[in-house]
């Protein structure tokens, strides 16, 4: 995806990210730009791995941006810690890691080694607004 990251916009009654005692946690972020979901559908049916990876990268960028906004800038992020990637996918889909690598790669592209994370990738039946991927990020901040 060539879309640039834009300010995160909460889609409900929650904060995009919260910082407390040196820890920042993002809400679940989907592949949106300016509040508009750019990718819809199930991975393995409506999207192949390349497009799903792009969606995961955008969602991870949104999670990182939400944390940066809450912390006062990207330079306030000491390091990313944990990334959870949820995929709305068919029951037969088993390449979760290949898609989640798009999210992990996005964080490393932005922050280098500070963007390296431990990660969980899980398949789910559906996600908000028909999104194919949702990402949550936890980071240490100063």
From TrEMBL:
This protein's name: RidA family protein
- Origin species: Prauserella endophytica
Q: What is the top-level taxon of the source organism?
A: Bacteria
Per its UniProt record, what Pfam families does this chain match?
A: YjgF_endoribonc
Domain Endoribonuclease L-PSP/chorismate mutase-like: residue ranges: 9-121
Entry-linked SUPFAM superfamilies: YjgF-like
Looking up CDD domains in the UniProt record yields:
YjgF_YER057c_UK114_like_1
